[in-house]
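JOB MANIFEST
job_type = single_chain_structure
chain_count = 1
residues = 86
[input]
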Amino acid sequence: MLRCKQVANALADDNFFRLPRSKQIGIRMHVALCVVCRRFHNQLIEFHRGEQELLRREEAGELCGNSGLSPEAKARIRASLQKAAR
């Protein structure tokens, strides 16, 4: 059985679907059985949904005010947030 730390790292990694099928199944079984890892997984899902919604609203111009940031600065911040989410 996988340890929680291994599962958390695998869930946060963008390469989850590139893992061998047997490892994916092991991670899914662990998440199904472990309350803490299930919560972490759900939090990651909600974080990614919020991130996508924020990006969508920003691109649609729905956010209030003008941040005054250059497009390059926005891209750096976006990349940093995406990296931190992993």
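[summary]
Helices lie at 4-12, 21-33, 35-59, 71-85.
The radius of gyration is 16 Å.
exit_status = 0
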